[in-house]
Write a structure and sequence with these properties.
Layout lengths: L10 H31 E2 L3 H28 L8 H7 L10 E2 H26 L4 H24 L15 H10 L2
Parallel strand pairs: 1-2
The structure holds fe (ii) ion.
Length: 182
Amino acid sequence: MTSFTAPGLSTAAADEVTGILQERLSALNDLHLTLKHVHWNVVGANFIGVHEMIDPQVELVRGYADTIAERIATLGSSPSGTAKAIETDRTWNDYSIGRDTAQAHLGALDLVYDGFVSSHRDAIAKTGDLDPITEDILIGQTAELEKFQWFVRAHVESYTGELTTAGASSETAAAHAARAEH
Ligand SMILES: [Fe+2]
């Protein structure tokens, strides 16, 4: 329970906001680890392009985790940044692709971003009335994450504008569909 918070915000609202932000903090920590995992496991003809495309996003997402953790502290709560917190907070499965081609990883990563961006948008909707400052932080982050998803999708997009992974409901299925096109 928060004993102090930002001026003009009730402690009850702050508790609600920090609860939402803790889940997003764990999601961001999971995402930058997943991105490094892809950076290390990508193989094949497009290795260097994808390997190098991933690292700036890792740095961006690590920075976003820092911003969210410090927002939680600013609002009077304690951010949990441990591996255990990620495991406790997450409602999704561990990234499931190991050593694989650039196409396979990008197909799977598109699904990772589908889940992440949808949840960040949900957090924007939930925090909008409670704390517009937090909402503003989440909006800025989401815009950049959506842009990176476009980078990912451009690799699995056909010249007619369709995703080769369309309809895939698991990372494994998306990886398989993306791999089959190359
Ligand atoms: Fe590296």
